[in-house]
Specification:
By secondary structure, the protein is mainly α. The chain has a single domain, classed as Endonuclease III, domain 1 (Orthogonal Bundle). A two-stranded parallel ribbon has the order 1-2. Helix 1 packs across helix 9 and helix 6 packs across helix 7. The longest helix is centred in the middle third of the chain and has 21 residues. The protein is globular, with a radius of gyration of 16 Å.
């Protein structure tokens, strides 16, 4: 998920969503151990793949991030444990009444972004981190009137 959020930087989400299966194919089912081993030949091949976003910096960051991801797994037991530690294992429950109230970033995403960058990640700015945390359920930003808001609330 974090790979796709980084790929989306500067683009519409629908662009990346439509290419998700191409990314799955090009990135060996998003296996971080395999991706961490990619070299310049593999990056060059992906730069020719019209099914994905061909941005060299983003593709190179995917490899760098896979390596950093594995380091976090090794230190914390899982990336999941690392991420949930930022919120003491409980999702942030926001109570926005309109989409205009949903932030693009918060102090939480600032902290996560800063820590990931310190660990070697790239393309993990605060807005990308916030969108990632929304997508994986660390932050519940469903509008209060949405049927999913209460279903995801603790």
């Amino acid at each position: 998920m974090l790979i796709l959020e980084g790929a989306q930087a500067g683009l519409s989400w629908i662009t990346v969503l439509r290419k998700r299966e191409n990314y799955r194919r090009a990135l060996d089912d998003f296996d971080p151990e395999v991706i961490a081993g990619y070299g310049s030949r593999r990056i060059n091949a992906m730069m020719r793949d019209e099914g994905i976003i061909r941005n060299r910096l983003k593709l190179e960051s995917t490899v760098t991030n896979a390596r950093a991801f594995l380091d976090i797994q090794s230190l914390h037991g899982s990336f999941d444990s690392y991420l949930w530690a930022f919120v003491d294992g409980r999702p942030v429950q926001n109570r926005c009444r309109s989409m205009k109230q949903v932030p693009a970033s918060t102090s939480l995403s600032d902290r996560v972004s800063k820590d990931l960058k310190k660990r070697g990640f790239r393309f993990v700015g605060t807005t990308i981190c916030y969108a990632y945390m929304q997508a994986v359920g660390v932050v519940n930003d469903h509008i209060v009137a949405c049927f999913r808001h209460d279903a995801l609330a603790e």
